[in-house]
Specification:
The protein is an alpha/beta fold. The protein is 49% helix and 10% strand. The protein contains eleven helices and six strands. The longest helix is centred in the middle third of the chain and has 17 residues, at 90-106. The structure holds magnesium ion.
Length: 246
Amino acid sequence: MEKEKIYSAVEEYCRRMGVDRAQWRPRAALIDMDGTLIDSMAAHSLAWKRLSDELGLDARRDEFYLYEGMTGRATIRLLYKRAKGYEPADSECDELYSRKTSYFNEMPKVPAIPGAARMLGLLIERNITRVLVTGSKQLSNLDRLDSDFPWAFPHDKRITATDVSNGKPHPEPYLKGMALAQVTPVESLVIENAPLGVESGRASGAFVMAVTTGPIPGETLANAGADLVFSSMEELADALPLILPD
Ligand code: MG
């Protein structure tokens, strides 16, 4: 992406947030997991589709890309409300979410997103605090962060579905991430791949860098409120040095 485009997005953000451009210094990066760090969305959509078919919920596989970022409970409530006109109790949602998780875990291990390790390396080098902010509570994926991206996410710097009352697109997950990193919204970058995650990041007041890693077009991410949309994580990593303080 051209330098000018990146600088003008930063200027526009600073204007919107009432921050002096010359003083703007991101101190923390709040980073989504599925579709951002690991290429897991195809497997998630298959697992959700299998569960929906078994329950007669009449869902399309590709619609799950749009629900990405919502908690498992919220997704199950949405599907039931639409197909059957009621929402199951939390305990039933949790049981169904475990079933979906086990379908996911039956599939081959998903690869890391190309460029994600380099992106994290650049943040570590420049002393930018990293916080994981995910709507997931799938332990198999959370555990592998330590092996795939060693040092990137200390265990006390993770917000998962169990830490929030409102999942994305509500700003709560990212606001809680900022609290963990002890930074303000204008000191925060959000790195996301999903429309609801972008909405959440935008509503939190952070500078939102979106990346397309699946079938959702970049335009949808821009419309959801991303400050910049990259066509790959490699491209996002290339842009980071222009945004971060030396
Ligand atoms: Mg995601």
